[in-house]
């Protein structure tokens, strides 16, 4: 069991807080030991986790390792390599009038933190924040997603076998359990999911003035400039849009391009889908499934939003929805009114860059913005004239894999960020220290 089932959320937090208050999680040696133990879990139990991901999401083994297990191992390795340096006090200059004095900043652990994970990458999006929380010297309550039950069970069983159970607790369950957890006083809450629940988390946190990181989603646009190599564009869109059957918070949500490029891109996208998944993606080893029937029904309702270029078929019983490309999609079509979070890629036609920028600016700030272009002017304008969590040119999604880049949203797509050093900052308080001598 992840914890004594008779233990209430209040008792769990009290127990973990006693560990923190005793100073047990503060030493660098403890933090390193926990990170190494988590790495051992991922390397020794990788097949167990991959099997659970297969059961929950139809994830192929290679994708499970690439996007979840190995991804988190790399995050741990990067943190272990740099942690001692990151924790060194940072000197700050002191005005002459205070001389003799010295000043610096130190990173303090926060205390007991809550990490609430979503179902789409249920290993990575639980454990990558936990890496940062442990590296910062905190105790952690980890809440895996009940919508990925096999993975939740596996993590609840494995984490206590490897980590310090007086400092890390796993709480499984659905809305009642999460609600009970949110009623407790934590020192930080890290939530990945949708904006609706994000608001609930923020309201609950306000009761205790608890700081919150919200990793949300949104409609991440792709601008395809005239004159780009469309075979490359199509291959890279297909590999990132249809990964995990489109259930990725930073997946390309829709494409903006001019009518002529859109026509040419249609054919290239259909070819790229065939090349990657074969004539029948339902039989492809590495093509996933929709998480449940409710999401399948929601996505099926979006299929009439444009002319079908490829895909458009599904099997509710098997939770299979084919990789789908829709052309000539109107800006107010149903598929454009919400984050798709599934394997449907709409092509929306604009006159050019000016109209594309206006289109993006007129909507909620996305978690990511992508563009395929060879033009430095286009790059500079998109960087300067749009707001998004991150912007990536000529290869969607890969910014997540760079540990030295912060990952997070802005506006409706979230607040706060993490990965690498930014995780340490998120789960720490940077404390000012001034010592005047004399």
Write a structural description.
With 438 residues, this protein is an alpha/beta fold. The protein is 41% helix and 18% strand. It has 14 helices and 18 strands. A 7-stranded mixed β-sheet has the order 10-13-14-9-8-15-16, with helices on both faces. The chain has a 6-stranded mixed β-sheet with strand order 5-4-3-6-7-17, sandwiched between helices. Helix 5 links the parallel strand 3 and strand 4 (139-143). Helix 3 runs antiparallel to helix 6 (149-162). The longest helix is centred in the first third of the chain and has 26 residues, at 61-86. It is globular, with a radius of gyration of 23 Å. The N and C termini lie far apart (57 Å).
Determine the fraction of residues in helical runs and give it as a percent range: 40-55%
Largest sheet: spatial strand order: 10-13-14-9-8-15-16
Secondary structure: number of strands: 18
Tally of DSSP helical segments = 14
Strand content: 15-25%
Q: List unreliable stretches of 5+ residues.
A: none
Rg over C-alpha atoms, rounded to the nearest angstrom: 23 Å
Beginning-to-end CA distance, first to last residue = 57 Å
Structural class assignment: alpha/beta
